[in-house]
Amino acid sequence: MNDIAARFGPPPSPDFGVEPTRDQVRSFRSDGFVAVERLTTDEELAWLDEVYRACFDPDDPASERTRRDEEADHAGKRTVTRSQAFFPEVAVPQLLDTAYRRNGLRFAAAFLDVPESRLTSWSHMLDKPAGIGRPTYWHQDEAYWDPRIAHRAIGAWMPLTDCSIEMGCMQFIPGSHLQGIQPHSSRRPDIRPDLYEIDGEVDESTAVACPLPAGGATFHHSRTLHYTAPNASGRDRRAYAIEFETRPTLRSTPIDKPWITATQAILGEPTTLRYMADGEHRDL
Q1: Taking the mean position of all CA atoms in its chain, how far away is CA 133?
Q2: How far is the C-alpha of 103 from the C-alpha of 92, rounded, in Å?
Q3: Which CATH architecture has domain 3-283?
Q4: How far apart are CA 244 and CA 109, in angstroms?
Q5: Of 207, 52, 242, 219, whose CA–CA distance to 135 is shortest?
Q6: Cα angle vertex 274, ends 272, 279, to 5°?
Q7: CA 146, CA 269: separation in Å to the nearest integer?
Q8: Span 257-268, pLDDT tens digits
Q9: β-bridge mates for residue 237, sequence order
Q10: pLDDT per residue as tens digits for the range 130-175
Q11: What's the predicted TM-score (pTM) here?
């Protein structure tokens, strides 16, 4: 265990278990998402909150071990912000032993109809400060991923405090995971070419918002359209997301994602085909 991880000790809820129901499995497969009332304990939420704060503290060594999201100011200058902290399990490997991950793995395996042993995970923490956090526009997660690689994946999203619609809870378009990968583009390619949203209009009258208590979670298919509103409340919104997936495979022919091709023309194409799994980079 590294010095950073040793500060936190083990997660406090080794015996807390939740099982997916048949109705939840059916709902996920038809709608592409499901909300679960509780995946962990109050004690683990407090433990996770300590880890979360360390990963977003620019003066904490834990934040140096995470990859931070990049944003830009209104003048177009690239700046580093901490709206997201990627792969915190690298800094704190105990995150792989939480009740949240253990229960999430059980749900994801049921939704994908695969053994838990076939799934790995990677995670990221998301921060939307009170009155500041921008919207996350309608998109599919899979639209972001390398067109050369095939994935079977499910995302779990858990707030560390109660999360209302006003704070920016998850919202989904039911059944959108059955429509394939839809065209996306960047709203500001001059500033952030790799921040995508769906092209065209979304019928928001069909959207389902999923406010959650702390420790509840949503699960969604990698092709389900989803959105979170700006945080218009007086409270910070802190969330922890885990992506569960089977081992990615190389496609015989890359699928067409011109928005990624455009980004690669600006930022360059990755020279190696690797993926993050359980705190380490692995080759395909």
Answers
A1: 16
A2: 19
A3: Sandwich (2.60)
A4: 9
A5: 207
A6: 140
A7: 10
A8: 999 999 988 888
A9: 128
A10: 887 678 999 999 999 999 999 999 999 999 999 999 999 999 999 9
A11: 0.93
